[in-house]
Automatic annotation (TrEMBL):
Residues binding substrate, per UniProt: 21, 122, 166, 295, 393, 400-401
Lineage, opening ranks: Bacteria, Pseudomonadati, Pseudomonadota, Betaproteobacteria, Burkholderiales
Taxonomy, superkingdom: Bacteria
UniProt EC number: 3.2.1.21
Protein name per Swiss-Prot or TrEMBL: Beta-glucosidase
Length: 440
């Protein structure tokens, strides 16, 4: 019997999405533009020249989608709020029609007995704030804290968990480091400063949400990976150590240790961020949970050209190595290095070139992927890591950022022309797996 059949009875099982990837309704009911709306205006930025104007039309089909979530038998749904939907310019007046959408969504989830896990920021900054400098502008951290307080004030007693940010590494390094994501800036120094302002905004938001006296558990979601040297050479080992310091420790150390890792600071040199007095104390607020998103490891090679990962278990449609044991290694390493709160695996899944055939979608590779990662997760738990839940990414095929609609992560297939939803075999497997869990 697989290890994954032996999870605690109170373990939380869920599925996850994000606002820009599924909602559509880009101009509906007073919503303002986000940096991703703007980024998509340049067709060179998106591989299939698409945008998020309609996406999965979740804004209009949320009841149907919550019905799908309920049919899977999950405990919880992780989703994000579009900041520009509830505050069109990112400052000033609130948009009651925008809040009304999330109010209805929460009502629907409650009616189906599905717990709500909200992410405040999943990369879609209001364009009005970008016009003022975006995350490079320190003031944006304070505007984010205001937004977090208002959401916690309104909904904090109807939501089980609120995460400040999803993957700030991506916001900084892909948005400002290599221009792969919105707002499309390629400047290493800006990326590092932005990473600091994102962390500062997290800490300020934690304080502002605590002041709202919400009952929701509060935390942050970080994308993380192990960094493995391709060989035993000193160059590869040094490269792997630096990669881990500049990615994982760069975000973990300020939150849990109140400082940046020295190795990364030295490597950044003149690009190191400007840090004001009191910033690190503001960032290092206690959190109730840590969300971990895991997809792959970093395979570090100093050779030219660099060695590629062996991919013994294959690669996903994103070209990412399938390496489930890296999840065990990561969690055990984090548990040894930090005083951690409970952990949720907030994203894990794979892109697969799925198609509907005779009304069905066969995706055995995804089922195998999830099985292996659940076994790896259980192995970490058996080594003392306090993991409380797992959210499969993603509920729906959706707008996969700069890949457009070409990559399908969902366990539910979406026909973008008709918006028809079809449960993939992986969704049926997940439903049956969860049913078996509850019969133990």
């Amino acid at each position: 019997m697989n290890q994954s059949n032996h999870y605690p009875a109170d373990f939380t099982w869920g599925v996850a999405t994000s606002a820009f990837q599924i909602e559509g309704g880009a101009n509906a009911d007073g919503k303002g533009p986000s940096i991703w709306d703007t980024f998509c205006l340049n067709p060179n930025n998106i591989k299939d020249q698409s945008d998020g104007t309609v996406a999965c039309d979740h804004y209009n089909r949320y009841r149907e989608d919550v019905g799908l979530i309920s049919s899977l038998g999950v405990d919880a749904y992780r989703f994000s709020m579009a900041w520009a939907r509830v505050q069109p310019s990112g400052k000033g007046a609130w948009n009651e029609a925008g809040f009304g959408f999330y109010d209805r969504l929460l009502d629907e989830l409650a009616a189906k007995d599905v717990k709500a896990h909200l992410t405040l920021y999943h990369w879609d900054l209001p364009q009005g704030l970008q016009d003022d400098g975006g995350w490079l502008n320190r003031d944006t951290a304070h505007r984010f804290a205001d937004y977090a307080h208002e959401v916690a004030r309104r909904f904090g007693n109807r939501i089980d968990a609120i995460a400040t940010h999803n993957e700030p590494w991506c916001s900084a390094n892909l948005g400002y480091g290599n221009a792969q994501f919105a707002p499309g800036v390629a400047d290493a120094r800006q990326a590092i400063q932005v990473s600091h302002h994102l962390l500062l905004s997290h800490g300020l938001a934690m304080t502002s949400m605590r002041a709202a006296a919400a009952s929701a558990q509060l935390g942050i979601v970080l994308n993380q990976w192990t960094a493995d040297p391709a060989t035993d050479s000193e160059l590869d080992r040094t490269m792997a150590e630096l990669e881990y310091a500049r990615s994982v420790q760069w975000f973990m150390d300020p939150i849990f240790k109140g400082r940046y890792p020295e190795l990364a600071l030295r490597a950044h040199g003149a690009n190191a961020p400007v840090v004001h007095d009191g910033d690190m104390a503001a960032i290092a607020q206690p959190i109730d949970f840590l969300g971990v998103n895991y997809y792959f490891r970093s395979f570090c090679s100093a050779e030219t050209p660099p060695r590629t990962p062996p991919g013994k278990l294959g690669f996903t449609d994103m070209g990412w190595e399938i390496y489930p044991q890296g999840l065990t290694e990561l969690l055990v390493k984090l548990n040894a290095e930090y005083m951690l709160p409970p952990i949720y695996i907030t994203e894990n899944g794979m892109a697969n070139p799925d198609a509907v055939t005779d009304g069905k979608v066969s995706d055995p590779a995804r089922i195998a992927y999830v099985r292996m990662h659940l076994d790896a997760l259980k192995a970490a738990m058996e080594q003392g890591v306090d993991v409380r839940g797992y959210f499969l990414w993603s509920l729906l095929d959706n707008f996969e950022w700069n890949s457009g609609y070409a990559k399908r992560f969902g366990i539910v297939h979406v026909d973008y022309a008709t918006q028809e939803r079809t449960l993939k075999d992986s969704a049926i497997w997940y439903r049956d797996f969860l049913s078996a869990q509850r019969q133990r």
